[in-house]
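thread: overnight batch results

M.L. [08:02]
morning all. the overnight job finished for the chain we discussed friday. pasting input first so we're all looking at the same thing
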Amino acid sequence: MTDWTEPGVFEVAPGVHRIPLPLPNDGLHTVNVYAIEDGDGVVMIDAGWALDEATDRLEAALDTLGYGFADIRRFLVTHMHRDHYTLAVALRRRFGTRIALGVGEQPSLERILGGRADAQLSNLLGWGATDLAERWRKAAVPLERKSVAAYELPDEWLTGASVVDLDKRVLKTVPTPGHTAGHVVFVDTASSLLFAGDHVLPHITPSIGFEPSRPELPLGDYLDSLRLMREHPDLRLLPAHGPVTDSVHRRVDELLRHHEERLEATAASVAGGTATAYETARRLGWTRRQRRFDELNLFNQVLATGETSAHLDVLVRDGRLAASTVDGVVHYSATLG
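M.L. [08:03]
and the structure it wrote out:
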């Protein structure tokens, strides 16, 4: 089986090509973008990170298909994370290519452009992670502020379930909040394809709510969005990270089971006492290997704490835990009775 991270151009359906692009110092290593042949040009699903190496690889891939950057008609971007969005911005500055993005990303994107991308600091304090917040402030906040230059607003906000008409196919835009508030997927019903972005990934579970403007219940949104995929016909999964697989429904079922198991483990870790999200995260195992929290790097400790908060808040919504706020820190406990 070919390693999905290997560079190249891979036809996944007639006129649809997967192009893996590199990521810097990232555990994921690679992001898949998809080039859809559209008349005398191409439409891109996602764009990649605005890196010289990624730009060169995308240019070489398009050349293999007989196109150049000027032949990209538009970018349809699943969400605003930089490994999906920023190369589209960089190429628009050179070629004027139009970018479309889900409208739910507007609050976070405007926060970034306003120089207020460091919302994780206040989140971490509310989760009881004071020491982690200080480490994040020293290491990550300066880098976040420098990243502002990589972002701009899109040309088009995608609102609700809508239709994108291409030369030889029709894509349905489906809002799937959870990974981010404005995440969307693109459904090609006629070809039985789902351009899934980070919503449904074949080998890993996407992070939940890691964004400058975090919604109130990101895991609740994500679980609803997963169930929404079950209302569509089973489609071929074209993910942003990982190999193409044949069944969206099978992977959705696995993800729903995973989160139910995680909710159970999270509830059990709070039973008989009171804990913050940070304290709870430190009690849980992480990744498939059940690594200890302290074995994770700074970025993944922040993700883990936010994930735990998201699970705790769903447990509160469902009446399985109670929450109280003391001096700005949320504490969770078992419900009485």
